[in-house]
Backbone:
């Protein structure tokens, strides 16, 4: 019986070495991958919008203003004194 246990131990060690070799290879492949491009996080780092993006943004902003003003029915003060 001790012989069988020894063979099982050797087999387990070989399997472990194979898995460690695979892990080492995968880690090397991951480190060799190109780094992702940095994401813009600050306003200062953002490129200016294209004319199409600006038009789309302005339309969306106007739509949001319209929705907001319709929901709340703001009264505007034109600065004149009603007597």
Residues:
């Amino acid at each position: 019986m001790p012989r069988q246990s020894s063979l099982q131990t050797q087999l387990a060690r070989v399997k472990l070495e194979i898995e460690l070799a695979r892990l080492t290879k995968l880690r090397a492949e991951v480190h060799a991958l190109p780094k992702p491009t940095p994401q813009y996080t600050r306003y200062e780092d953002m490129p200016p919008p294209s004319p199409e993006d600006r038009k789309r943004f302005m339309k969306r902003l106007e739509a949001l203003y319209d929705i907001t003003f319709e929901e709340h029915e703001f009264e505007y003060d034109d600065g004149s004194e009603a007597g």
Notes: The longest helix spans residues 2-32. The chain has one domain: 2-34+47-72. The chain is about 65% helix and 0% strand.
